[in-house]
From TrEMBL, chain A:
Transmembrane segments: none
UniProt keyword annotations, A-Z: Glycoprotein, Glycosidase, Hydrolase, Signal
Native source organism of the sequence: Durio zibethinus
Name assigned to this protein: beta-N-acetylhexosaminidase
Gene: LOC111293799
Residue ranges constituting the Glycoside hydrolase family 20 catalytic domain according to the UniProt record: 149-421
Domain called Beta-hexosaminidase eukaryotic type N-terminal: residue spans: 40-137
Signal peptide limits: 1-30
InterPro entries in the cross-refs: Beta_hexosaminidase_sua/sub, GH, Glyco_hydro_20_cat, Hex-like_dom2, HEX_eukaryotic_N
TrEMBL record, chain B:
Claim: Hydrolase is one of the keywords in the record: yes
Annotated organism of origin: Durio zibethinus (Durian)
Record domain Beta-hexosaminidase eukaryotic type N-terminal: where: 33-149
Keyword Signal: yes
CDD domains noted in UniProt: GH20_HexA_HexB-like
Protein name: Beta-hexosaminidase
Active site (catalytic residues): 321 (proton donor)
The reaction(s) this protein catalyses: Hydrolysis of terminal non-reducing N-acetyl-D-hexosamine residues in N-acetyl-beta-D-hexosaminides
GO BP annotations listed: carbohydrate metabolic process; glycosaminoglycan metabolic process
Keyword terms: Glycoprotein, Glycosidase, Hydrolase, Signal
InterPro entries given in the database record: Beta_hexosaminidase_sua/sub, GH, Glyco_hydro_20_cat, Hex-like_dom2, HEX_eukaryotic_N
């Protein structure tokens, strides 16, 4: 997958660098590590390595230069990774005593050059970096790695509406309880937390289906009190409210992509509710026409606020010819959709539910890993229209108690598919080339306090089958 | 007509009787503090925490200051608090918490005073809430209780205390309220252990029983015998001495003791990876070779190294599930048994008692699993605390013989048995059938056990919580304040489970078996 634009190196690539370095550092020399593999996940784009082991000073210092060297995000990221890397180490003086040497470390400083001082995190920002780890004799290691960079936040659905919308303050009466809510500041906090880690937040307000919870605060939005989805297409109020939501949300989410949903729209309540049916008849619209009308109208609102709309694939499947050409089509129903979308000139995000829906517990890591977003697309300019892909953690049966082990480690398999070079991830025997590295990465996640489930289980988020080393489970 | 009237009368009567039940249950359920304090009184008013809510105290202690700051963080949960109170017309402002601690002794040890008194004023006279305790560790419990009184109001964005004024006088029923973790069947990285310790403090548990080593792996560094940790699963699945000291210190800052266990002579196959002579033979690797002096030298080395890290008064020497057949079938050991005039069970006794003496020589008192009591109770050191696990009814016999006891009967308090329900955890009474007051005092407390065969960093929190919380209340709250019917606590426990979730603890839903996924979409408070 080719980058979008060739901006100068930005500081977000710094995270990739540090993340990579942090994976290199282990407390002791590797155990039974297959020396032919590189234990960095995802696999860097290019790398060379030697066979020396260098000691790193736990008081590693940071020296910055370049236009972007001074940015706060850089310093904070460095401190964060330092804590992760050096959590075990305290015995500096023992070394010195034993060896009678003042400086026993090969590496005492990390020098970072950031060329751009732009703090803007936008789609296509340059995330590349180059890392050299060398002793004086000039051996070097160069590489790159990262994790996912977009958090797609599906905030609302039919069951609950947890987000504060100041323009329409009754909307969050649809929250489960008055504590299961996000204030505007909470949402901004998430955006800023993500930004400090180089991650965009793409918000979703799914319309016109999946919206029953909106009516808890504004029952007028329901076609009727006994038929509550989709949102009432016949009312101006519906669209005033959507506009209000989008205005409020625009202040919180700076990412240029905004998701408008549009999936699984069952128009039965439009055709069966008298005043809506009347409205359709007056305009000579079928229910399907009204669906298109609704989606396009919402899209225009988003575009007028400076967003690029993302919509679930049903909108493309139902009325591709009329879909706004700026639309990014979000594939989920199955394979083969992105090829069609890009053939018609639309950009696409790949989330084929057969392989990348994390709530499907019966998809093992290798199926996640082998899924290829560019499958069936051979034309290079069409390939460029595939923005990337996304794994989806739907929450019907996941909550705080089990969401982490449902996401990890399988999401990491998709992460490598999305970052690393296609040839690197398309090896035939991934049991040899990827599995040991994947096990290693899972244990790294655990060491960092992330509840990543065992790799080798048949179903996701199962407990380990018995006692054993992390590296074998 | 008459039948209708009597029907109506019946319905009314039923409604009334339900209303009465609901009233008393709902009074109890209004107190959303877990575990339920010994004595609570509350009012009906709201108080609001000022933005610069402060700690006021003469007790100069980093430990207390850190605990106070941690408490603030846990109340705020990252929300931005509204700064402009006058705009909201909120007058009764709580400015801070005034803490008085009588004893200057900072030491955390067995049977320190954990009591506290917490008062939150009424709105007429706000100002400061007051916390009094004998020791700083009692104060920590008071901070925990206070943290459970505060709520973030999403609409006004201020922190509130409901149902003021409060007067809470509290102390634990049992002095030993433990959780066992097992880092041999699966290595638990330090961040995982620390999170478990944090979560223990929310439920006022105070002993982390660290079952460090077992047959499968030996993860701890032992400087006296540096090859022992060759028995770790891998070089990175290990704890250095500094790591262990960090666990002890992290726990101590939260008022939690660490009971280290080195299980002998069974459950010790991993010792031989570094020192194969500890095995009876290469083909028969458990229990530890009773015939060798070297075996006891190693135990002495381990306990000596322990004594530099683990400062709790007790050390756990295990002694459970000892299958002595490798002793009898290995020639040099059966010879040794003959020469010493011992049969297998006498050798088992000899081993346990000898290990006990080593521990005593390092200043420890001993805990041993109940088989040692069942087999030769009258030979055990009188300083032994017997750790019951096999089933009910053992505690009664232990205390009748004059020894202390910790209750962990596996049918009710083993967390990896997912089909043991919340209600069973709650209802398990350590003093069952023990009526003599002196003997009751010998039951020092109880412990829920999180064995590690099927649990690792990915699922330990949701296996422990919320069922461990049910046991935590059984161990803290006075007997007559416990719910007689465990189903009555569902509302309060759901609230505590959601509080754990808010604090980043992956506590599972109440419904279903242990560690179940939620059955479908829904509010935290109803799952």
């Amino acid at each position: 997958m080719l980058p979008f634009s060739q901006k100068p190196h930005s500081k977000f690539s710094f995270f990739k660098l540090l993340f990579w370095v942090s994976q290199l550092l282990v407390l002791s020399s590797g155990f039974e590590l297959d020396e032919s593999l590189t234990y960095i996940w995802p696999l860097p784009s290019e790398f060379t390595s030697g066979n020396e082991t260098l000691a790193v000073d736990p008081t590693l210092s940071l020296s910055v230069s370049g236009k972007g060297g001074d940015l706060k995000i850089l310093r904070e990221g460095f401190e964060r990774y330092k804590k992760i890397i050096f959590k075990h180490v305290s015995g500096v003086s023992i070394f010195e005593k034993l060896r009678g040497i003042t400086s026993v470390y090969d590496i005492s400083e990390l020098r970072i050059i950031v060329n751009s001082d732009s703090e803007e995190l936008q789609l296509g920002v340059d995330e590349s970096y180059t890392l050299f780890v060398a002793k004086n004799d000039g051996k070097s290691i160069v590489g790159g790695a990262t994790i996912e960079n977009v958090l797609h936040w599906h905030i609302i659905d039919e069951q609950s509406f947890p987000l504060e919308v100041p323009t329409y303050p009754n909307l969050w009466n649809g929250a489960y309880t008055k504590w299961e809510r996000y204030t505007v500041e909470d949402a901004s906090d998430i955006v800023s937390f993500a930004k400090m880690r180089g991650i965009h937040v793409m918000a979703e307000v799914d319309v016109p289906g999946h919206a029953e919870s909106w009516g808890a605060g504004y029952p007028d939005l329901w076609p009727s009190s006994s038929c509550r989805e989709p949102l009432d297409v016949s009312k101006n109020f519906t669209f005033d409210l959507i506009s209000g939501i989008l205005s409020d949300i625009r202040k919180i989410f700076p990412f240029e992509l905004f998701h408008l949903g549009g999936d699984e729209v069952n128009t039965g309540c439009w055709t069966s509710t008298p005043h809506v049916k009347q409205w359709l008849n007056d305009r000579n619209m079928t229910a399907k026409d009204a669906y298109q009308y609704f989606v396009l109208k919402a899209q225009e609102m988003a575009i007028s606020k400076g967003w690029t709309p993302v919509n679930w694939e049903e909108t493309f499947n139902a009325f591709a010819a009329n879909l706004n050409p700026q639309t990014v089509v979000h594939n989920w129903l199955g394979p083969g959709v992105c090829p069609n979308a890009v053939a018609k000139g639309f950009r696409c995000i790949f989330s084929n539910q057969g392989v990348w829906y994390l709530d499907h517990l019966d998809v093992p890591w290798d199926q996640v890993y082998n899924a290829e977003p560019l499958e069936g697309i051979n034309n290079v300019s069409e390939q460029n229209l595939v923005l990337g892909g996304e794994v989806c953690m739907w929450d019907e049966v996941a909550d705080t108690s089990n969401v982490q082990q449902t996401i990890w480690p399988r999401a990491a398999a998709a992460a490598e598919r999305l970052w690393s070079k296609r040839e690197a991830v398309s090896a035939r025997n991934i049991t040899l080339t990827a599995l040991p590295r994947f096990l290693y990465f899972r244990c790294l996640l655990n060491r960092r306090g992330v509840q990543a489930a065992p790799v080798t289980n048949k179903y996701a988020r199962q407990p380990p089958t018995g006692p054993g080393s992390c590296y074998e489970q | 007509m008459a039948s209708e009237a009597s029907l109506v009368a019946m319905v009314v009567a039923l409604a009334l009787s339900n209303a009465l039940l609901v009233t008393s249950e709902s009074e109890y359920n209004k107190v959303k503090i877990w575990p339920m304090p010994a004595s609570v009184s509350y009012g009906h008013s709201h108080l609001y925490l000022s933005n610069d809510f402060e700690l006021s105290t003469n007790y100069d202690s980093g430990l207390l200051k850190d605990a106070f700051n941690r408490m603030l963080a846990v109340i705020r949960l990252g929300h931005i608090i509204e700064a402009n109170f006058s705009a909201l017309h909120l007058s009764p402002l709580l400015r801070g918490l005034h803490i008085v601690i009588s004893s200057s002794n900072h030491q955390l040890q067995y049977t320190i005073d954990e009591s506290y008194k917490l008062t939150v004023p009424s709105p007429e006279n706000p100002g400061y809430a007051h916390l009094e305790a004998q020791t700083v560790y009692g104060a920590l419990h008071g901070l925990q209780t206070f943290s459970q009184l505060c709520h973030f109001n999403f609409t006004s964005r201020v922190l509130e205390v409901h149902m003021s004024p409060w007067t809470i006088i509290d102390q634990p029923r049992f002095s030993y309220r433990g959780l066992l973790i097992d880092t041999s069947r699966h290595y638990l990285p330090l961040p995982v252990v620390k999170k478990v310790i944090d979560s223990m403090s929310y439920a006022k548990l105070n002993v982390l029983h660290w079952h460090i080593v077992d047959s499968q792996s030996f993860p701890l560094e032992i400087p006296s015998y540096p090859k022992l940790w060759d028995g770790a699963y891998s070089p990175s699945e290990r704890y250095t001495v500094a790591d262990a000291a960090e666990v002890v210190s992290y726990a101590q800052q939260r008022g939690i003791n660490v009971l280290a266990e080195i299980d002998v002579p069974g459950h010790a196959r991993s010792w031989g990876t570094g020192y194969p002579s500890l095995w009876p033979s290469k083909d028969c690797q458990q229990p530890l070779d009773v015939s060798k002096e070297f075996t006891f030298k190693v135990i002495d080395g381990i306990l000596s190294d322990f004594s530099k890290i683990f400062k709790f008064k007790f050390v756990h020497l295990g002694g459970d599930e000892v299958n002595t057949s490798c002793w009898t079938i290995t020639p040099h050991i059966s010879k040794w048994l003959r020469e010493h005039g011992m049969n297998e069970s006498q050798a088992y006794q000899y081993f346990v008692l000898r290990a006990q003496n080593v521990a005593l020589s390092h200043g420890y008192e001993i805990v041993n699993w109940e088989e040692t009591f069942n087999d030769f109770g009258n030979k055990l050191s009188r300083k032994t605390v017997v750790h019951n696990w096999l089933g009910g009814g053992v505690a009664r016999q232990v205390v009748a013989s004059g020894l202390r006891c910790i209750v962990s009967n596996q049918d009710k308090w083993y967390l990896h048995y997912l089909d043991t329900t919340l209600q069973e955890f709650y209802a398990n009474e350590p003093l069952t059938n023990i009526t003599n007051l002196k003997q009751q005092k010998l039951v020092i407390g109880g412990e829920v056990c999180m064995w590690g065969e099927f649990v690792d960093g990915s699922d330990i929190e949701q296996t422990i919580w919320p069922r461990a919380a049910a046991a935590a209340e059984r161990l803290w709250t006075p007997y007559d304040k416990l719910a007689k019917n465990p189903r009555e606590v569902t509302g309060r426990l759901a609230h505590f489970r959601c509080l754990l979730n808010q604090r980043g603890v992956a506590a599972a839903p109440l419904a279903g078996q242990g560690r179940s996924a939620p059955e479908g979409p829904g509010s935290c408070y109803e799952q």
